[in-house]
Amino acid sequence: MTATTAIESGEAEYARDLARDGYAYIPADFYYGNVFRDRALTELRADYRGLEAEFGLGELDPYSPGNRYRRYAQLRVEPDSAEFEYGRFELYKQTKQYNPQTGGVVREYPLISPELQENPLLRRLLQSDIEFLRRYPRIDADPAELMVGLHLFRYLAYPGDPAYSSPNWLHKDDENVVFIHLIGLSGNVVGGDNVIAPNAKQFETVLRLADVFDTLVINHDKLHAVTPIGTSSRNPVAPARRDILLVTFQVRGSA
Question: Any idea which fold 3-250 has?
Fold first, then answer.
């Protein structure tokens, strides 16, 4: 099986999992063994360092509590292609239906740096997500017709001061499909587990993204949440850190 065939086969399998179960777990090995397979180890490490460094440039989210630092971009995808460009092409706003805390508010976050926009590892990761969408049977539109968002989140938790998401418990997103890629996780993190639930009274699974590029993909079928993170360290200078890259695909008018 060629590398291209393996990627296509894997993406199709995970897309079926998402359509059937409402979520799909993609282990980091899929990306290392397929998507990044032709990158030399030295290049891969350099690209990763560039990606990870971008999280340190994030600004504290002024719209929500929770010790989250953010950067942002949107993607304009070319029809029938995995190529795209970065930018801010339309307003970013969620609905109160799905986000009662900041729904209805137009939010502006710092655009990712020009250096990250040139990062080959990030581009390949995003191209994989785009091709996944083309194999996902429950969205008929091409990714070029969707609203595509790129969100960099850094969670920093200190003793007595945890970090958490918004909304901070079980919810659904406006977007039809959301990729949650783990980019970094410090060894002193407590919590940060992903929860999947069919309804507000019953849990289906709890999983932990532990290895860099472990990925969870979710749709509208299930509720989901990430548990708050704390720190096992008593040293306030070394916070617990969780870096997440969210890639969101939304059919216009579907929220």
Answer: Jelly Rolls (2.60.120)
